Amino acid sequence: MKLPIKGDYVFLSFAALVLGVGLVMLTSASSVVGLEKFHDSFFFIKRQLFLGVLPGLVLFLIGFHVDYHRWRMWALPL
What we know:
By secondary structure, this protein is mostly helical.
């Protein structure tokens, strides 16, 4: 397998930056509600991490490492 080119790492870095900023915004916007309703100020951030971020990262890494020519046969079904 060939090593990814530099542009792939730039894309990966920007995706990680957007993900991090989104998680910080979610934490700051929902900590009070989580504390009042669920007695845990990090309730929504934990939920987002385990139900949204982790599955999304797994799918992203699978797609990142698969050669784009192999996706052609899956283009119509997907």
